[in-house]
């Protein structure tokens, strides 16, 4: 068998009769995009390393002085901050690969929407982080610090504070993607305004359940996440109903 014949055989094995990609090809593409995204995070972490002190100072501004209780705590916490910062820096690349993977079945004209989806995804994600960091986090910290007394003083650990901030902020970033996800699924014909309207009450209930699961275990965090979910869901629903007419 010649080289050309081997290539044709491989291509036919990777494609179905209708020209779509096989499961194996999808898995290979997924692996390739995951690797590229991880490399982007590594590159972003390398960039963030040079600004690590400024990033740490910015994150710790709401609480002030922190302490570390174990010898390696400061080092590993700085490492976490660097990796998370690298993730945020590489977010445009990550979202590009995510949308590129999930939109292979679209027409050429519809694929052009990818140029809108990627920047919109990044903007919405950072909008969620900013909303949580500047508006919700100070309220939550003030609430928790309000339990201190003369005999019970507040003393935050560097690691515990950073873990709290990350688990508090990241869910807001992903939640703010909700309108975009709803609009894309509606455009693909998977969701309709009738379906979205029918299950609104269930979504409103689940938003509080999800808030209790993915945020720190307190009522403020739960409500702070649930309310934006409801507003964002309603935004996506109205756009699908009145703009997309679906």
Strand segment tally = 0
Q: What is the ordering of alpha helices and beta strands?
A: HHHHHHHHHHHH
For the record, give the distance between the C-alpha atoms at the N and C termini, rounded to a whole number. Answer: 52 Å
Beta content: under 5%
Q: Cα-atom Rg, whole angstroms?
A: 22 Å
> Which bin fits the share of residues in helices?
over 70%
- Look at the helices and sheets and give the structural class: mainly alpha
Q: What's the overall average pLDDT, rounded?
A: 78
* Biggest β-sheet strands, sense, barrel: none
* Number of separate helices: 12
Contiguous runs where pLDDT drops below 50 for at least 5 residues:
3-19
**Apparent shape:** globular
Report on this model:
This protein is mainly α. Helices cover 76% and strands 0% of the residues.
Short description:
The protein is an all-alpha fold. The chain has helices spanning 3-14, 23-49, 52-60, 73-89, 91-102, 108-111, 114-145, 158-175, 178-187, 193-198, 200-214, 219-243.
Layout of strands and helices, then pairs:
Layout: H1 3-14, H2 23-49, H3 52-60, H4 73-89, H5 91-102, H6 108-111, H7 114-145, H8 158-175, H9 178-187, H10 193-198, H11 200-214, H12 219-243
Helix pairs in contact: 2-4, 2-5, 5-7, 7-8, 8-12, 9-12, 11-12
């Amino acid at each position: 068998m010649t080289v050309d014949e081997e290539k044709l055989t491989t291509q036919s094995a990777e494609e179905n009769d209708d020209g779509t990609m096989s499961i194996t090809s999808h898995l290979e593409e997924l692996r390739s995009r995951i690797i590229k995204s991880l490399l982007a995070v590594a590159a972003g972490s390398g960039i963030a390393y040079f600004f690590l002190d400024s990033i740490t100072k910015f994150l710790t501004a709401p609480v002030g002085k922190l302490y570390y209780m174990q010898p390696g705590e400061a080092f590993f916490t700085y490492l976490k901050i660097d990796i998370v910062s690298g993730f945020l820096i590489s977010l445009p690349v990550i979202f590009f690969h995510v949308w590129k993977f999930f939109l292979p079945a679209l027409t050429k004209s519809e694929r052009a929407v990818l140029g809108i989806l990627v920047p919109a995804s990044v903007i919405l994600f950072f909008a969620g982080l900013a909303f949580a960091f500047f508006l919700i986090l100070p309220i939550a910290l003030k609430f928790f610090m309000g339990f201190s007394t003369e005999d019970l003083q507040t003393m935050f650990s560097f690691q515990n504070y950073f873990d709290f901030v990350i688990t508090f902020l990241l869910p807001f970033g992903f939640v703010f993607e909700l309108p975009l996800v709803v609009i894309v699924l509606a455009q693909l014909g998977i969701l309709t305004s009738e379906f979205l309207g029918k299950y609104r009450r269930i979504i409103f209930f689940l938003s509080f359940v999800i808030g209790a699961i993915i945020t720190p275990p307190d009522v403020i965090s739960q409500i702070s996440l649930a309310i934006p979910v409801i507003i964002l869901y309603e935004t996506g629903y109205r756009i699908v109903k009145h703009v997309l007419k679906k």
